[in-house]
């Protein structure tokens, strides 16, 4: 069974939990100044990947190897998006282009990328 839920301005699709899967984590990026969650900047992660959404738009996906795919259309959409994307990737904003050029980060059409997470059963969503 597949269940959809809108949270943080993003539609999340949940599949039944697979045995041994880690739970899905959904967090707001903390402000570097205050430490409080920043509105509209969301990280969704499990053991296989981390996804970054800015204002409900899919901006990046990062894998445990450190490699990442960035939305070719939106990764430089605004200074705010660039700043929080760099924070999500754990680097300075000025390093993003160098990592794209080196091949560590790849530009892709993430809006067309199918995303599948094995998370918790739909009945958990009701609580």
Measured by DSSP, the beta-strand proportion falls in 25-35%
Give the overall shape.
globular
Annotation field: number of helices: 3
Helix content: 10-25%
Count of distinct strands = 8
Order of helices and strands: EEEEEEEHHEH
Biggest sheet layout:
6 strands, mixed
- The whole-number mean of residue pLDDT values reads 76
Total count of domains: 1
Span between termini:
17 Å
Uncertain segments are: 1-20, 116-127
Major sheet strand order? 3-4-5-6-7-8
Structure description:
With 127 residues, this protein is of the alpha+beta class. The chain has one domain (24-113). It contains 3 helices and 8 strands, in the order E-E-E-E-E-E-E-H-H-E-H. It has helices at 79-89, 96-102, 122-125; strands at residues 3-7, 10-14, 25-30, 37-45, 50-54, 57-62, 68-71, 105-108. A hairpin with a 2-residue loop joins strand 1 (3-7) and strand 2. It is globular, with a radius of gyration of 15 Å.
Structure, briefly:
The chain is an alpha+beta fold and 127 residues long. The chain contains 3 helices and 8 strands, in the order βββββββααβα.
Question: Can you give keywords for this protein?
Answer:
127 residues, alpha+beta, six-stranded mixed beta sheet, 17% helix, 35% strand, globular, disordered N terminus, disordered C terminus
Layout of helices and strands, plus pairs?
Elements: E1 3-7, E2 10-14, E3 25-30, E4 37-45, E5 50-54, E6 57-62, E7 68-71, H1 79-89, H2 96-102, E8 105-108, H3 122-125
Parallel strand pairs: 7-8
Antiparallel strand pairs: 1-2, 3-4, 4-5, 5-6, 6-7
């Amino acid at each position: 069974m597949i269940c959809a839920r809108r949270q943080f301005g993003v539609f999340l699709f949940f599949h039944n939990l697979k045995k041994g899967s880690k739970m899905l984590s959904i967090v707001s990026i903390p402000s570097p100044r205050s430490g409080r969650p920043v509105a509209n900047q969301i990280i969704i992660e499990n053991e296989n990947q981390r996804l970054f959404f800015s204002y409900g738009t899919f901006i990046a996906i990062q894998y445990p190897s450190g490699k990442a795919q960035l939305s070719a259309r939106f990764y430089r959409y605004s200074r705010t998006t660039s700043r929080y994307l760099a924070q999500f990737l754990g680097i300075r904003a000025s390093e993003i282009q160098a990592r794209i050029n080196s091949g560590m980060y790849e530009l892709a059409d993430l809006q067309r990328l199918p995303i599948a997470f094995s998370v918790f059963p739909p009945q958990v969503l009701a609580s």
